[in-house]
Amino acid sequence: MSYFMVDIESDGPIPGDFSMVCFGAVLVNEELDTNFYGKLKPISEKFNPEALAVSGFSREETMQFDDPKEVMLAFEEWIRDNTKGRPIFISDNNGFDWMFICWYFHHFTGKNPFGYSSRRLSDLYCGLEKDTFAQWKHLRKSEHTHHPVDDARGNAEVLLYMKKEMGLKIGLK
């Protein structure tokens, strides 16, 4: 199995009514040097200025981004090219990140290469610590910048830490 740490930025709380602005994915391996970055043109007239501001882009800038279908097709190909076994989606907040990625894959390509499930980094950490309130973000090496590749890389660093230092049994291919 190959694990892909994913992070997204959006201009609102849900896909369809709002848009995924950009996303990043990092193949979780020792090097963390294989990544994907996509910027997507809005799919809706609706947007929340405060949510959009997190991404650092203006609405005008996002209107110049790439066609969402083309981005999702390129992401699907990148996943296929970088997977050994089954691809596994993991993120900091998979309730949010997964919702957008899954919706965009099904809406624009008709299928999701990750299947129907995902993993949440925080839950793995809390399970290892046996504490549902355990905090892990201090374990990131990379700065949390809200650039989705940076943030995915920082989260992948935590997953590698959990494997090496905490004994998480996880096969990374």
TrEMBL record:
Keyword Nuclease: yes
GO molecular function: exonuclease activity
Keywords: Exonuclease, Hydrolase, Nuclease
Domain 3'-5' exoribonuclease Rv2179c-like: 3-160
Coiled-coil region list: none
Keyword Nucleus: no
Top-level taxonomic group: Bacteria
The name this protein goes by in its record: Exonuclease
